Amino acid sequence: MSGLIYQQIAANVAQALSEVLGTAPPVPVVVERNRRAEYGDYSTSVCLRLAREARMAPIDLARRVVERLPEAPFVGRVEVAHPGYINFWLDEGWLAAQVDVILEAGESFGSLTLGQGQRVQVEFVSANPTGPITVGSARNAVLGDALASVLTAAGYQVEREYYVNDAGAQVRKFGESVLARYAQALGEDVPFPEDGYYGQYVVELGERLAAEAGRRYLEMDRPQAIRAVADWAVEQMLERIRKDLADLGVHFDVWRHERDLHREGLLDQALTILRERGYIVEYDDAVWFRHPDLEKDAVLIRSPRVVPEPSERPTYLASDVAYLLDKLVRRGFDRAIYIWGADHHGDVPRVRAAAKALGLDPDRAVFILYQLVTLWRGGEEVRMSKRSGEFVTLRDLLDEVGPDPIRFMLVSRTAESPIDFDLDLAVEQSERNPVYYVQYAHARIASILRYAQEQGWRIDEPADLSLLRHPSELALIRKMLELPEVVEQAATKLSPHFLPYYAQELATAFHAFYRDCRVVSADPAEADLTRARLRLVRAAKAVLARVLGLLGVRAPERM
Q: In terms of DSSP H, where are the helices of 154-221?
């Protein structure tokens, strides 16, 4: 069978409707998966929508459609239900046979051709290199990484990118802050800049620089020293950021630097295009972006009276416009997905307006805004980091709970929903902990397979899958076959939160099967059934590993 199950059912219903109506149905046939088993696996209400068009009662239209449905080996039963629903049950023999289909697909099970090779860039995390990765940016990291994995599974060519904001005033302020801590570490009574970067990590950077460089930067011209120290400090922070993200299991194809956009002339190129198209105005000694989609002008280049240093005059929006040109024109991505914190909601209309002004389809720039993460321990909110004294870092979280709970739990809600992260629950080894619950299902299957081999069974030998008739066996297979639909849903809605929910449902289906069906039997009369069930649990293990892999979570063999 080619395509997803519900799509094939929809195509068959559309074909039957065309015969009844004498023309193609004027509305799409929507087929949905049923959550209540008594209504079948799938159903459609299209006859309710087309009854007037057909000039007959919905129930009569549904009956005539069912009479004309083409044969489908995967459909075992079709029924019409009042007032005009058509319900479909999957054939149980076909269901059992899908165990081998899943095993043959292996790690590619659930993959789709939805994207048809379109090139998509997912730019995520992109935290300023002036401090460590925080818990909020950790959510950005797991959300972006899981989304990139889902889009890859859905047939897109995906590139993961981290945008390094290493130009402008914030980097200079960071350099001034580290330079002050460096001088203080050498015994110099140097005041700390009022608008500088505070935190223990800045003190540690100053002390490290003092140990490495001695008094070298105190002997330099101050502006030169600030630039040199800023470059050194940014590289130190990037090294730490890379390490923390790698320990979370997040890796990037490209680290794109804001400085390079300026050096390569992309900012000047973008401003030239906007100026030629009439979207730039100048007043108050500044350069402004004016667009009919915006309520007010937005600053692109600040006034030299306000910002004396030329390299610091371009605003974030100016760099965003250059970056947009880089992504969608120079590098030619079909879509550029930005994952930003919800506090950037005001920037979205400006960037979309800039895309229009550059002559680009604004829908090619997609924005996902995520809400905050609140940490809880012992029923109380955790506000401070022992290490930094001012914010909780990703490293704090990694050291306390490890990467798997972080990845699973921080992607378990839609991006627009805030997350309460329970530190106690994250390390609890019980079915209350969702990641432990799913990983334990995988480890339990591995244990079953090891036991079978110890008892002399060949776990990879062929089997008569038609023996898989128990309701719990068929329920497990049904749940495994949902993965391609979950991948499609997550990729279409750009929301990987569907994966952890599905993983928990799949683990529940397996645990129910394990409760109801003995896998390895000592009874010679049940040898064929044992072989069939061993293939079933191997398939379940493969699907669990696949969904955990999409989430970037380990699939352990032992727990």
A: 169-185, 200-213
| Strand ranges of the sheet holding 373-377, from the earlier edge strand across to the other edge | 380-382, 373-377, 419-422
List Cβ neighbours of 299 (8 Å cut-off, separation of 6 or more): 286, 287, 288, 289, 315, 317
What does pLDDT average to over the chain? 96
Contacts of 156-159 spanning 24+ positions with Cβ under 8 A: 156/114, 156/115, 156/117, 156/118, 156/119, 156/120, 156/491, 157/115, 157/117, 157/118, 157/119, 157/120, 158/120, 158/121, 158/122, 159/119, 159/120, 159/121, 159/122, 159/253, 159/254, 159/333
Contact between 522 and 188 (Cβ < 8 Å): no
pLDDT tens-digit map of 534-552: 999 999 999 999 999 999 9
* CATH code reported for the domain at 5-90: 3.30.1360.70
CA–CA separation, 290 vs 354, rounded Å?
Answer: 9
pLDDT in tens, 94-107: 999 999 999 999 99
Does 198 or 269 have the greater pLDDT score?
269
Contact between 341 and 369 under an 8 Å Cβ cutoff? The reply is: yes
Say which CATH topology domain 119-164+253-370 has: Rossmann fold (3.40.50)
